[in-house]
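> forwarded from #structure-qc
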């Protein structure tokens, strides 16, 4: 059976299968069929989106499919992905749907699904939906006119999430902070500035003028150098760069230096342990996290749980083991006491609260770990076959692992959201990193290009 869902929902180029109106309509019908079969009665769905032009197309088609299957739909407009997760739970909805391709360029779009508890939909449920979409007629003729669902525009959705986000810091005043906030011309453009302003921070805004096609373009978490430069130019205390759907965040310290997720996780883990808030004395990271983070955690006697790449795997581990802190180097940070998914805004609020409590700057806190030289490249590919079957590449990986044993590592994996392969090399010597990145890239071009 064809696989529709990747590590973060369905994703692809907008208006081309599977991210087209026809698939969205069938997905809406499939969700409705699944909910009705589960005996939910009058089922309810929440639909949010980021600022991509194609969001209108997908929103309309999904709504039509859901309503035709007897599901009531709450349309919340452009809001962050974590806001949809929160609203799904808050409104006692049966499913949450976010239309976004996260950090990808505007030409892509995607569909993320959340269960009634605000967590990403389980693999088994995604597989069941895929089977319905691909193998069923999905006929909704049995739904009579008086049984059709209704569509509502929820005008106070942003306000609901704003108050929730503020509550995670007990509405503690942030008047000591001058921040630069880059919303990536994305889902948080009309929401995030209010949160920080209402908590008293002096906010310098950028990336708040979406036009349907400028999301993530030379701004936001994919281009943190922009916010870093603005911090220096405006002599601000901190820079906060969100991505297109605001589920990830990258920071800049008061000197204009970029601070990624690994440094934030290390600093928060140490602070949480002091405060007795680091559940089971463990932080959860992925295979992409820097070896320096592991080294710092050993120095502070903190356990590290490692998962596959993807915040869904981090969250699964956190849920299963009742951990409170986890995330990715890329900026997906999960503060599980407050959020069920990566949340850039709540993460930034927790960092600001930590800075205030410790009376230190971000550069001082981020200095808790040394970073091993590391390089990550993403290469486009024409085909996707098991890496072990690409002899030139698998041989190159083995040679790299042999040389880096005890002094570094290599990680080669296919992207779960794009037709790309990602190569990470990390070592105690920058020349070794550059050498093996070059050799592995050549092997990939020869074997998969």
């Amino acid at each position: 059976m064809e696989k529709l869902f990747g590590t973060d929902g369905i994703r692809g180029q907008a208006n081309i299968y599977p991210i087209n109106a026809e698939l969205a309509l069938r997905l809406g019908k499939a969700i409705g069929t699944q909910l009705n079969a589960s005996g939910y009665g009058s089922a309810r769905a929440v639909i949010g989106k980021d600022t991509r032009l194609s969001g209108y197309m997908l929103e309309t088609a999904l709504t039509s499919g859901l309503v035709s299957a007897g599901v009531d739909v709450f349309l919340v407009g452009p809001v962050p992905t974590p806001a949809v997760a929160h609203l799904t739970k808050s409104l006692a909805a049966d499913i949450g749907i976010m239309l976004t391709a996260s950090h990808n360029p505007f030409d892509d779009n995607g569909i993320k699904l959340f269960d009634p508890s605000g967590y990403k939909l389980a693999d088994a449920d995604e597989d069941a939906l895929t089977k319905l979409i691909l193998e069923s007629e999905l006929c909704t003729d049995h739904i009579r006119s008086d049984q059709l669902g209704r569509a509502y525009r929820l005008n106070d959705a942003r306000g609901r999430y704003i108050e929730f986000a503020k509550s995670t810091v007990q509405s503690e005043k942030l008047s000591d902070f001058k921040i630069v906030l880059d919303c990536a011309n994305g889902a948080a453009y009309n929401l995030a500035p209010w949160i920080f302003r209402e908590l008293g921070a002096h906010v310098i805004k950028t990336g708040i003028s979406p036009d349907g096609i400028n999301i993530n373009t030379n701004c936001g978490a994919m281009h943190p150098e922009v916010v870093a430069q603005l911090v220096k130019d405006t002599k601000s205390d901190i820079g906060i760069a969100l991505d297109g759907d605001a589920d990830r965040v990258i920071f800049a310290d008061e000197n204009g230096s970029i601070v990624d997720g690994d440094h934030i996780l290390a600093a928060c883990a140490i602070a949480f342990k002091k405060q007795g808030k680091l559940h089971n004395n463990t932080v959860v990271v992925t295979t992409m996290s820097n070896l320096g983070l592991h080294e710092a955690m050993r120095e502070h006697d903190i356990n590290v749980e490692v998962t596959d790449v993807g915040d869904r795997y981090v969250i699964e581990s956190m849920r299963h083991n009742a951990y409170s802190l986890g995330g990715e180097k890329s900026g997906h940070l999960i503060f599980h006491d407050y959020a069920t998914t990566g949340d850039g805004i709540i993460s930034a609020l927790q960092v600001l609260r930590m800075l205030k409590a410790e009376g230190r700057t971000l550069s001082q806190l981020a200095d808790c770990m040394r970073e091993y030289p590391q390089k990550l490249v993403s290469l486009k590919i024409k085909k996707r076959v098991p890496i072990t079957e690409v002899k030139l590449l698998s041989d190159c990986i083995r040679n790299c692992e042999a040389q880096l044993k005890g002094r570094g590592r290599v990680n080669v994996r296919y992207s779960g959201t794009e037709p790309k392969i990602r190569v990470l090399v990390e070592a105690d010597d920058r020349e070794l990193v550059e050498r093996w990145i070059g050799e592995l890239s050549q092997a990939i071009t020869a074997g998969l290009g």
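QC bot note: The chain has a mean pLDDT of 95. The CA atoms of residues 284 and 305 lie 5 Å apart.
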